[in-house]
Specification:
The complex is a heterodimer of chains A (83) and B (92). Chain A is an all-alpha fold and 83 residues long. Chain A contains two helices and no strands. Chain A folds into two domains: 43 residues, no CATH class; 39 residues. Chain A starts with a helix and ends with a helix. Chain B has 92 residues and is an all-alpha fold. Chain B has two domains: 39 residues; 53 residues, no CATH class. In chain B, helix 1 crosses helix 2. The chains are: A mainly alpha (83), B mainly alpha (92). Chain A: Its main location: endoplasmic reticulum.
């Protein structure tokens, strides 16, 4: 059986992704059909950000992966040079 | 028709439908809401795929199983093999 910490972390991931999915779905799919002066619009950023924010997040993620790869590769190369 | 061709065909069909609604290629004059929903669709699909992947990983982490029985069976088999090898004169 998975330990308590594992279960909390896993359920946290599931919960986070579900929340993100429902918020994003309302933002992208439902909001265009809601009147512009409705209260619901106050809880969401302007529409163009629904593409800009994931784009920025994707770029940051790719940069992190690239940095991680670079660090790992550099670390693996160092001992060979010492020999 | 290979699997690749099928996928390419499906993807191009979807892309065409998306472009028709987003750029109003044939002057069909959709309601403006349709266009509003359609243009972030690629990013929306990407985000939903990401959410699905994250949820799958989280669920698998939460329900990760220890295989107690299999571990015991494996230990027994190791013991058995060691005894067998010892009988045949192998020093372990």
């Amino acid at each position: 059986m998975a330990s308590g910490a594992d279960r909390t972390a896993g359920m946290g991931l599931v919960l986070f992704s579900l929340l993100l999915f429902s918020y994003y779905t309302v933002w992208v799919i439902v909001l265009p059909f809601v009147d512009a002066d409705h209260v619901l619009h106050r809880y969401f950023l302007p529409r163009e950000f629904s593409v800009i924010l994931p784009g920025v997040a994707g770029v940051v993620l790719l940069l992190c992966i690239a940095a991680f790869t670079a660090v790992v590769l550099l670390k693996n190369h160092k001992p060979k040079k010492m020999d | 028709m290979t699997k690749l061709m099928q996928w390419l065909f499906g993807v191009s069909l979807l892309a065409t439908a998306w472009a028709v609604v987003t750029f109003d290629l044939f002057g069909l004059s959709f309601p403006p809401e349709y266009r509003e929903v359609a243009w972030p669709m690629p990013v929306y699909l990407l985000v939903s795929f990401g959410c699905f992947s994250l949820a799958t990983v989280g669920y698998r982490v939460a329900t990760f199983n220890d295989c107690d029985e299999a571990a015991r069976e494996l230990q027994d088999q190791i013991k058995e093999a060691k005894e067998d090898l010892r009988k045949k004169g192998l020093k372990l």
